[in-house]
């Protein structure tokens, strides 16, 4: 076995929370690496490129809202353009008895989106890290306390060691994919295994069109359906209507042969014949994503566990810190929640006593005040 590489902090997961924690800790002078199982950054922030330069369609998280200052500040600081969600127009309602047009947009609330897609947020964070500190295709298989302190982080290729580990993946996924032995308290294990994974059971479908034709008919691109396959639908067009797109959510159990044809037929019933022929139809089944959803994801439904007090307490002798949107007490389930949890984890690492565990800490002191996220 290769010798252990030792670092101040190892962050597991290169989604928004993991990368925000890593950049804050790097800015504070810590030697930090990020281990990511996927071959990309972003986690549940995933954007499909389009032929329009600088424009993308979100297959994962999409919006942020007024009062979510961490997201707004991060986007502004990194020159990421945002724009308001399209709201004007009427809503379509699909029931077993037929389809009705309802006055006004009854689904969407004022919110903002990212012109280049939400994945531009983790991309900007990753760009701020030193070369070599982000390791893709590196799943973590085990975590063990070590003596005299810190944690051993096991991967298929080699082990690593750190004084602190930031676990920036959904708790239920972490408990299923990472072997902790019997190191974690039973209460924490039960909590993590029961905590839902935000969007983990969702299927997001995005239909890309040449133009936002529904707007010409006075429709908002918003719809409710009690017959499916899409249960709710929104306008996902970019600034000024381009690229033009509609998106909706479906249950994973409905994704079977013929699903795409059923989606196009439903969109045509709601928005007219032009909706039957999108130029592209993206189907993102998050429940089938190995590095998002545990096998139990369809059965996890107690959202009151989000932000549980146990997630705010470092585990394993103060060395293991939770950071994912599910662990946030503020805006859990949102991108803002991911950034808030990263901020909390980074603050806990920086506040921890230094000693023999911090084997490679730089001499520069941490900045005053709240770490940047």
Automatic annotation (TrEMBL):
What transmembrane ranges does the database entry give? none
Region annotated Disordered sits at 352-373
InterPro entries attached to this UniProt entry: Amino_oxidase, FAD/NAD-bd_sf, Flavin_MAO
Pro residues bias spans: 364-373
Domain Amine oxidase: residue ranges: 111-350
Mind listing the GO molecular function terms for this protein?
Answer: oxidoreductase activity
Can you tell me which family this protein belongs to? Belongs to the flavin monoamine oxidase family.
**Name recorded for this polypeptide:** Amine oxidase domain-containing protein
The species this protein belongs to is Streptomyces gougerotii
Q: What is the lineage of its organism?
A: Bacteria, Bacillati, Actinomycetota, Actinomycetes, Kitasatosporales
């Amino acid at each position: 076995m290769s010798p252990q590489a030792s670092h101040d902090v190892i962050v597991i997961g290169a989604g928004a929370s993991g990368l925000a924690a890593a950049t804050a800790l790097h800015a504070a002078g810590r030697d930090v690496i990020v281990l990511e199982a996927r071959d990309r950054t972003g986690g549940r922030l995933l954007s499909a490129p389009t032929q329009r330069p600088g424009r993308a369609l979100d297959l994962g998280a999409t919006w942020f809202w007024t009062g979510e200052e961490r997201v707004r500040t991060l986007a502004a600081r990194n020159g990421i353009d945002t724009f308001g969600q399209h709201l004007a127009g009427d809503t379509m309602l699909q029931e077993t008895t037929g389809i009705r047009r309802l006055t006004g947009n009854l689904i969407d609330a004022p919110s903002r989106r990212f012109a280049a897609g939400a994945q531009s947020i983790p991309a900007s964070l990753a760009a701020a890290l030193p070369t070599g500190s982000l390791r893709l295709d590196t799943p973590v298989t085990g975590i063990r306390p070590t003596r005299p302190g810190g944690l051993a982080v096991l991967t298929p290729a080699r082990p690593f060691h750190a004084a602190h580990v930031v676990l920036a993946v959904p708790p239920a996924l972490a408990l299923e994919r990472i072997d902790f032995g019997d190191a974690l308290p039973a209460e924490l294990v039960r909590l993590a295994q029961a905590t839902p994974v935000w969007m983990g059971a969702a299927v997001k479908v995005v239909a890309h069109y040449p133009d936002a034709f529904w707007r010409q008919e006075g429709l908002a691109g918003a719809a409710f359906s009690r017959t499916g396959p899409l249960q709710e639908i929104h306008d996902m067009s970019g600034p000024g209507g381009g690229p033009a797109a509609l998106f909706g959510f479906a249950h994973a159990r409905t994704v079977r042969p013929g699903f795409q044809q059923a989606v196009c037929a439903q969109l045509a019933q709601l928005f007219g014949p032009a909706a039957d022929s999108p130029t592209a139809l993206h189907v993102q089944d998050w429940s089938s994503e190995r590095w998002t959803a545990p096998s139990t994801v369809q059965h996890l439904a107690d959202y009151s566990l989000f932000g549980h007090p146990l997630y705010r307490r470092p585990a394993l002798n103060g060395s293991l810190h939770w950071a994912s949107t599910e662990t946030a007490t503020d805006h859990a389930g949102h991108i803002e929640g991911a950034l808030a949890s990263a901020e909390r984890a980074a603050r806990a690492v920086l506040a921890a006593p230094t000693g023999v565990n911090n084997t490679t800490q730089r001499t520069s002191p941490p900045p005053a005040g709240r770490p940047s996220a």
